[in-house]
Design goal:
Layout lengths: L1 H8 L6 H5 E7 L8 H14 L4 E10 L2 E11 L13 E13 L2 E9 L1 H7 L8
Length: about 130
């Protein structure tokens, strides 16, 4: 899991997922089904918006087939992000992740990102409905 954060998220080397994530991988963090290939695309999309993204593992605990991590994400909004134009603003947020492993490869992931804090740091206001 640490390699996913250091190599894929922080350096943009999504090919590392072929080594550490099973082809049958399921992502539970998003509101749509997500495979290993979808995971690669999501990382590339985020890194396009935040090319200097750095994810630091602050804490981790492993038990049985699961790993829990608290990470800090830092970066600058230089590209479009979910339809939002670049602001040039820096951000720092905390995320929590749980991954389940089988035979040394990630097979499932759940995560919680502080999107409200991210939007606040980027000074993006939600339009009233």
């Amino acid at each position: 899991m640490k390699r996913i954060f250091e190599e894929a998220w922080s350096r943009g080397n999504v090919e590392v997922l072929d080594e550490v994530v099973a082809p049958t991988f399921k992502q539970h963090q998003y509101d749509r089904p997500s495979t290993r290939e979808d995971f690669k695309a999501a990382i590339q999309e985020v890194r396009t918006a935040f090319p200097d993204l750095k994810v630091t593992v602050e804490d981790s605990v492993a038990a049985d087939d699961k790993v829990w991590m608290r990470v800090t994400c830092r970066g600058t909004h230089f590209g479009n992000f979910k339809g939002l134009p670049p602001t040039g603003k820096r951000f720092e947020i905390t995320e929590f992740h749980i991954a389940r492993f089988e035979n040394g490869k990630g097979v499932e992931h759940w995560g919680v990102s502080d999107m409200s804090r991210l939007m606040e740091k980027l000074d993006i206001q939600k339009k009233p409905s």
